[in-house]
Amino acid sequence: MRYSGFRVIREALRGHAGWGMAWRDAAPKDRYDFVVIGGGGHGLATAHYLAKIHGQCSVAVIEKGWIGGGNVGRNTTIIRSNYLLDGNEPFYELSLKLWEGLEQDLNYNAMVSQRGIMNLIHSDAQRDAFVRRGNAMILNGADAELLDAAAVRREYPYLNFDDARFPIKGGLAQRRGGTVRHDAVAWGYARAADRRGVDIIQNCAVTGFRIENGRCTGVETERGFIGAGKVGCAVAGNSGRLMAMAGMRLPIESHVLQAFVSEGLKPLIPGVVTFGAGHFYVSQSNKGGLVFGGDIDGYNSYAQRGNLPVVEDVCEGGMAIMPMIGRARLLRMWGGVMDMSMDGSPIIDRTPVEGLYFNGGWCYGGFKATPASGLCFAHLLATDTPHPVATALRLDRFERGAMIDEKGMGNQPNLH
Ligand SMILES: Cc1cc2nc3c(=O)[nH]c(=O)nc-3n(C[C@H](O)[C@H](O)[C@H](O)COP(=O)(O)OP(=O)(O)OC[C@H]3O[C@@H](n4cnc5c(N)ncnc54)[C@H](O)[C@@H]3O)c2cc1C
Hints:
Bound molecules: flavin-adenine dinucleotide
Number of helices: 10
Largest sheet: 8 strands, mixed
Number of strands: 18
Radius of gyration: 21 Å
Strand content: 25-35%
Oligomer: single chain
Order of helices and strands: HEHEEHEHEHEEHEEEEHEEEEHEEEHH
């Protein structure tokens, strides 16, 4: 069924009796040409593009819980393409372009809102770094705008300009950045993939790989063995645990990241704002809640909930740039498990096991990457060659010393 304004009016007049299920509850078959593990944004997008671009319809997505129960439904919904390095910027700019046409492609309202993102500048050295980054963005076809303090103040007059430990000296804006309704992305990709014949199998954890003569021939699951021509892994924070089942140790650590939502307030924050002298980012949802976050938790974990010291740390960041946030009451908070890579950049690559492919290392920026990640992973699975914008995202770059260290932090996952 195609969704449209006409359909909404029609269903409103007949008690909404005509809506069908958005996707089938598929039972696993014995074998598929492609099995994608992980029903998050990246796994579902991969299945969609495998079917849509490469005409593959023998595809299954295998999810241990429910669609959207992982990070794709837990993030702070920010999209942007404001990267510096050549290994990253063309990839994230492709992703932003895909976001711009996503709702038409999927025939699904994902509430893509290009309300803009503003990275605040607090020192002269930081301005230099942001000028460099802005120029790299423009050279790669993205948009970037450098603002002085007065221009930032016109857009965000309530930020702490004068009386702060780190006064605001300007901002780097990307007007095409913004927010997207996170779980709608999972639902939209799931529905679109299902319409093209992809089986979405929920409540079916992968428990092992069958590897014969160096080749992966399928996956063991809670619902039995499923044979596969090729297996793609896209399980974000569970990457280390999953790939260990295939005998691999990844250059990835798992950490918890928390998100926070305040009570609903009148319209206040037009776009996304990030604090440049600490770690804090905030936007306002369409319902009025301030949606914000900051650093990852201080220790490694697979638990989807966070700890209190980081709550204090994030709120301190918020108070530093926007003291009146202290008067808003917090309504909800939750945690998700992040796959932090050693250089802060992702991996989309083949593995040493024939027929087994890996997608991960998204750190806490993988939501914005969802469309390009799916497109590039589908390209790799279907053609066995990397997509042109993902050639640097290789698994062996850590061995070769070809890191993509976007923030210049070295191999410290907690800082990426
Ligand atoms: C609090 C928070 C805020 C964030 N904010 C942003 C943001 O503002 N912008 C941004 O770009 N990114 C953000 N991120 C990061 C982003 O959400 C993730 O990088 C991205 O969603 C990860 O990819 P995914 O959607 O495929 O992951 P997930 O949705 O986690 O999907 C992986 C799936 O794999 C499944 N799985 C795991 N193991 C198995 C198994 N053995 N068998 C079968 N299935 C399995 C899981 O159940 C899960 O559903 C944030 C993350 C968090 C937690």
